[in-house]
Amino acid sequence: TLGFGEIEISDNLDANALEALKNKLSPCGFEVVENQKSVLVQKIKDAIIELVFMEDNNNYKSSVFLAEKLNHSYGYLSNVFSEVTYSSIENFIILQKIERAKQLIIINEMSLTEIAFLLNYSSVAHLSTQFKNTTGITPSAFQRIIKKRRENLK
C-alpha cells in the first residue's frame, strides 16, 4: 500500500523522462526514490519524525514503534538504514529530537525540563549533553542567542 505523498509509476521511465520528473518534483519538496531499500529508509525517517512530534511519545520505545509501524524487525530496519545512509537510526533520532528541541526553544513556551520530558529524555542533563554534542552549544546558550536576536529585532 502507498502512504501519504507516495506515488508508484508502473512504466519504466527512460533516463531523460526520469530526470525530467526529478526536476519537476524537486522544487515542490519531493524526491524520486528508485529502489526498495531507499523507500524503506524514507519510511523509517518519516516514522521517526512522526514519533518525535507525537505529544505522548513517552509511551513508545522507538525500536518497538518502528517495528510495529513498518512491519519489519527492528534489526532489519536498522541494517537497511545503516546500509543506505551510512548512519544509525539512533543518530537520526537524536538529530530529529534536537531539531524539535530547537523549535520548542524558539517558540519559548516551555522550560527545558518540559522539553526534556516531552522528547523522552531521562533528564535535562541528558538533553543538554546531546544538544551540545549535536550543535556545539548548550540549550541555555541557544536560548540566549534566540533572546538576543529577538531583542535586536525590536
Residues in β-strands, percent:
under 5%
Instruction: Tally the structural domains.
Output: 2
Please trace the helix and strand order, writing H or E for each element. HHHHHHHH
Pairing-aware structural class of the strands and helices?
mainly alpha
Distance between the termini: 51 Å
Shape: globular
Describe this structure in words.
With 154 residues, the chain is an all-alpha fold. The protein folds into two domains: 78 residues; 61 residues, Arc Repressor Mutant, subunit A, CATH 1.10.10.60. The chain is built from eight helices and no strands. α2 packs across α3. The protein starts with 14 loop residues before the first helix and ends with a helix. The mean pLDDT is 89.
List keywords for this structure.
154 residues; mainly alpha; Arc Repressor Mutant, subunit A; globular
